[in-house]
Amino acid sequence: MSFSTQGFLADQGLVIEQELLEKYAELFEFTIKCSDISIKITGLFSNANNKQQISANLLFSRAVSHFQAAIILAKNGFSVESLVLSRGILETVFTLGAISTGAVTAADLLSQDLNSRKKHANALLKKIHIPVVGAHYREDLTRFIKKNMDSSELTLYDLADKSGMLAVYDGLYRHLSHHAAHPSISSMEQFIVDTPDGESHVEFQRGFSKIPAALIAACHGILLVCSAYEHAVTTTAEINTAINGCLQNFEEISTRYRPWQNI
Q1: Cα dihedral 139, 140, 142, 144 in deg (nearest 10)
Q2: CA dist., res. 104 & res. 254, Å (int)
Q3: Contacts with 260 (C-beta within 8 Å, 6 or more apart), sequence order
Q4: Residues 6+ positions from 174 with CB-CB distance below 8 Å
Q5: 0.85 exceeded by pTM
Q6: Collapsed DSSP state (helix, strand, coil) of residue 102
Q7: Residues 218, 67: contact at Cβ < 8 Å?
Q8: Of the given ranges (1-10, 13-22, 26-35, 36-45), which has the lowest mean pLDDT?
Q9: Do the strands 192-194 and 200-202 form a parallel or antiparallel pair, or are they unpaired?
Q10: What's the pLDDT tens digit per position in 180-222?
Q11: Which residues, 6+ apart, have CB-to-CB distance to 213 below 8 Å?
Q12: Helix, strand or coil for residue 78?
């Protein structure tokens, strides 16, 4: 079975993974260091004794899950898909960062959650005549909207602002939105093949050029999350030292690889 007949589902995964692990050994070793730190932090969850800490633990769990999934995707050649998850890590760090500054509370997050669902309910009410929605839901939707009328909105921009991370929002987050998450031409470059005569055509193929960027973005995101968690809750002296060490390594690796130069 080959890529030409089964695409990414072809049984070449182990070969691809081994090749990438060897080619980018330094970067994959760094992802393991970052992962080890994040898992150690999850071991502190049992110490939570208030809603703020529980909210921080939930957000941190989401970020670690995204991070490890991003690494699994990258080592199997899914570079853009990995970058999409790293964008999700940044969304989490904006929220966790806002908690760490004290600008957002657990109650605010609950209100935001209900407000988002309320907006969805309002949108469905406007389409109640469409069979797939069903008029029989009108009463339930109306009741939910009325019950949560006072819920308030917190946009990602608001959270980035409250967390003091607008530079990350306007920098890496917008970059990953355009170059990975959104269906832009830039996010689909791996499928564009240039021919010797100066023309181009589309070919469904693997794309490995963004693997370093995918690994570095994931590590950047999880290290920001670890730092935010330290401020929101606490860790240990050992974990703090490990985070600072990885942040220094990250700066050095980023300078050498320059992951955003050709993306």
Answers
A1: 160
A2: 31
A3: 175, 213
A4: none
A5: yes
A6: coil
A7: yes
A8: 1-10
A9: antiparallel
A10: 999 999 999 999 999 898 899 999 998 899 999 999 999 999 9
A11: 79, 83, 259, 260, 263
A12: strand
Structure tokens at 111: 């209100």
Contacts with 239 (C-beta within 8 Å, 6 or more apart), sequence order: 37, 40, 41, 226, 230
Dist CA 49 CA 57 (whole Å): 11
The helix (run of H) or strand (run of E) holding residue 201 is: strand 200-202
Three-class secondary structure assignment of 148-194: CCCCCCCCHHHHHHHCCCHHHHHHHHHHHHHHHHCCCCHHHHHHEEE
Cβ atoms of 125 and 141 closer than 8 Å: yes
The tokens for 70 are 């991003």
Residue 45 CB contacts under 8 Å (≥ 6 apart), including other chains: 57
Instruction: Pinpoint the alpha helices (H) of 75-137.
Output: 79-100, 106-126
User: Among candidates 95, 120, 92, 118, which has minimal Cα distance to 106?
Assistant: 95
Token pair recorded at residue 33: 């260091």
Nearest to 19 by CA among 76, 73, 81: 76
- Per domain, the residue ranges of the chain are 9-104+154-257, 105-153
